[in-house]
Design brief:
The chain contains six helices and twelve strands. It has helices at about 20-30, 80-90, 130-140, 190-200, 225-235, 310-315, and strands at about 5, 10, 40, 65, 95-100, 120-125, 145-150, 170-175, 185, 205-210, 215, 220. It has a seven-stranded parallel sheet with strand order 1-4-5-6-7-8-10, sandwiched between helices. A three-stranded mixed sheet has the order 9-11-12. It binds iron/sulfur cluster.
Length: about 325
C-alpha cells in the first residue's frame, strides 16, 4: 500500500494546530530543523515510479496522502507545485488526499487546466478549533474541488460544522487527538458532537484516534501508540455515510473498470484499528505478527509498504521525513 507522497519537506507554523507539529518534533529528534524546507529528490516523482515489469508501484484506485511533512500550499513550495500538479494529472486513476491550513492560497495556485476540479483530488482543510473552522470552511466551500473534506486534527477545541454540512459539498470528516510533547487533551464530547452533526447529514465520519490525552466523563486518559486508534474504534462513533464516488480514469480518459481497481486487504490486526474506513489496507509488514493471506501481493511489486501503525502515525501523529516519499 502506498499511502504517502512527500514532494517537499519542512514547513512554517501558521496556526494553533501547528504548535506541537509532529514533523518539527521528529526532525528535532534526528537533529534536523523542520523549518528547513526542501524539495525531495527521488521521492518527488514517486506516484509515477514503476516496478521492473513496467507497472506503476501505486496502483489504480489507491489513495495517496500528499505532503504529510509539509503543507501542499506552503508559499516556499510555489516553485515546485506546478510540477507536482502535473504528476497528479498524470495519475487520474489514483486518489490524492490534499490537506492544508492555507486554503486562502489555493485559488491562485491551481493548475491552468483545473477547470471545475479534477476527479482524483480530495481537498481537505484542517479545523483544529472553531476559529479555524469558521475561517477555513467558507473558503473550502468556495473553491472548485470535486471532493472536499474536513480534518479536525489535532482536535484541540470544540468544533461545530452543522451550518456547513447541509450544502452537501463536504463528503468526509475526520478527527484525531494530539501526540508527542505538550499534547493538548481531546474530549469525548467534542468527538460525539462532530459525529452527531455528520450523522444528521449522512456524511462519513472517522474518529481516527484519541491522541495522547483523552478526556471522557471528567477523567483524563493517557494513551500511547496503537491504543489510541483502538480506543477510537471501540467508541463506535465512526461510520460510512453517503459513498464518495471518485470517477477514476486511465490516461486516455476512460473509466477504470471496477475489477482493475485496487482492493484493500484488512487483516486480523486491522480489525481493531480506527482508521480502517479511510485506509488503503494492510501492508503485510509483519509488525503485528500476523501472517496474512494477502502476502502474495507482496511479490507483485508492492514496495515501500507501511505497517498499520505506520499509517496511523503518518496521517495523525508522526511521520519521519523520507526523501523517497515512502516510509
Ligand atoms: S506541517 Fe502542518 S502542522 Fe506542521 S507546521 Fe506545517 S502546516 Fe503546521
Amino acid at each position: 500500500m502506498h499511502d504517502i507522497w512527500n514532494p517537499w519537506h519542512g514547513c512554517k507554523k501558521c496556526s494553533e494546530g501547528c504548535q506541537n507539529c509532529y514533523m518539527f518534533y521528529l526532525d528535532a529528534q534526528r537533529g534536523q530543523d523542520g523549518g528547513k524546507i526542501y524539495r525531495t529528490k527521488a521521492g518527488f516523482r514517486y506516484p509515477l515510479s514503476k516496478t521492473r515489469s513496467g507497472e506503476y508501484k501505486v496502483r489504480s484506485g489507491e489513495m495517496i496522502r500528499v505532503c504529510m511533512t509539509s503543507d501542499f500550499f506552503l508559499e516556499e513550495a510555489d516553485p515546485w507545485r506546478d510540477e507536482a500538479w502535473d504528476i497528479i494529472r498524470q495519475r487520474p486513476d489514483v486518489k490524492f488526499f490534499l490537506l492544508t491550513k492555507r486554503p486562502q492560497r489555493v485559488r491562485d495556485h491551481l493548475p491552468k487546466s483545473w477547470g471545475d476540479g479534477w476527479e482524483n483530488v480530495m481537498f481537505n482543510v484542517t479545523c483544529e478549533n472553531q476559529k479555524r473552522a469558521d475561517e477555513r470552511i467558507p473558503i473550502l466551500l468556495d473553491l472548485p474541488f470535486k471532493h472536499k473534506g474536513i480534518m479536525c486534527a489535532p482536535f484541540i477545541g470544540p468544533v461545530s460544522i452543522r451550518k456547513y454540512l447541509p450544502a452537501g459539498q463536504i463528503e468526509q470528516v475526520l478527527c484525531d487527538g494530539e501526540n508527542y510533547g505538550g499534547a493538548r487533551p481531546c474530549r469525548y464530547e467534542w468527538v460525539r458532537q462532530l459525529h452527531d452533526e455528520c450523522a444528521a447529514c449522512n456524511v462519513t465520519f472517522v474518529f481516527c484516534g484519541t491522541g495522547r490525552r483523552f478526556v471522557k466523563e471528567g477523567k483524563m486518559y493517557h494513551l500511547e501508540g496503537s491504543v489510541q486508534s483502538e480506543q477510537a474504534r471501540k467508541s463506535g462513533l465512526s461510520f460510512s455515510g453517503k459513498p464518495i464516488q471518485f470517477r477514476l480514469t486511465n490516461s486516455w480518459g476512460y473509466p477504470v473498470p471496477e475489477e482493475q481497481l485496487y482492493k484493500p486487504y484488512f487483516g486480523e490486526h486491522c480489525r481493531t484499528c480506527g482508521m480502517q474506513l479511510i485506509c488503503n489496507g494492510c501492508s503485510h509488514c509483519g509488525k503485528c505478527g500476523e501472517k496474512s493471506p494477502g502476502a502474495d501481493q507482496a511479490v507483485l511489486g508492492i514496495q515501500g509498504m507501511q505497517g498499520q501503525f505506520g499509517q496511523i502515525q503518518a496521517l495523525t501523529s508522526a511521520f519521519p521525513a523520507d526523501d523517497n516519499g515512502e516510509a
